[in-house]
């Protein structure tokens, strides 16, 4: 059997990935969603007074 098929270092990625940008984008989107929810909840809370 060919050993090169079992070595992950020899695997050629079909597309390049930048994990840091993926994680940063995920955190940014999640933060933006929570911010929007917080602004809406604050506005609703102030309108009910």
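-> sequence recovered:
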């Amino acid at each position: 059997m060919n050993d090169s098929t079992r070595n992950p270092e020899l695997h050629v990625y079909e597309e390049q990935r930048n994990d840091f940008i993926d994680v940063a984008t995920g955190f940014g989107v999640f933060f933006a969603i929570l911010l929007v929810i917080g602004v809406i909840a604050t506005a609703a809370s102030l309108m009910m007074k």
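Helices lie at 19-47.
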